[in-house]
Design goal:
231 residues; alpha/beta; TIM Barrel; eight-stranded parallel sheet; 8 strands; 39% helix; 16% strand; globular
Amino acid sequence: MPTIAESIAAVCGRIGAAAERAGRSAADIQLVAVSKTHSPEVVREAVAEGLTVFGESRIQEAKAKIPELPDKLRWHFIGHLQTNKAREAVELFHVIQSVDSIRLARELDQCAERASRTLAVLLECNVSGEGTKFGFKPDEVTAALAELNSLPRLEIQGLMTMAPFFKDPQEARPTFRALRELRDRLQQQHDIPLPELSMGMTNDFEIAIEEGATMVRIGTAIFRPVPGAEA
């Protein structure tokens, strides 16, 4: 089994190759290392190899883990966020990638106001239409963006999606292309910049990069599996 250092080097090489195929710079693609289920000690191994951006999906786990790690790290919340956890999310995270409703956005805005901070967010969009996934439908986010963009404490930086799992990653390409095209339409319709596209995980991140991802969320390809934990 490769070490974390070897795994990170391999992932970065694959990011660079995918970027080159797309005529892009690897420097324009942010690697978000998905550290959920992994201990602070394991995260420190990744930090020692130069990683500084990590993704978590459970508030309780993050509350225990983040204070034990260096202040220089940036934390992205990437899981489904319940409104009653919004205050804690605002306290813990630099970016919320999974804003999937106007109700949640309003709650985050109010919590950020009370914390006297501006919160960077991405809007989670269910462009594949899967019933088991959270996120705005494309027509919903189009209608909601004017209100969302008016919330004074939220900085909407772009969109996020999860593609269906396919054995052949090429089959995820239409989902990633649909998110990029949705982003382009929203920018034109609302005359606002939405530079970030968070899409692509271990199984399909190279296809996502080819379709315009600016953030990829990678856990399994970096960290050794935890026995009994979710993949």
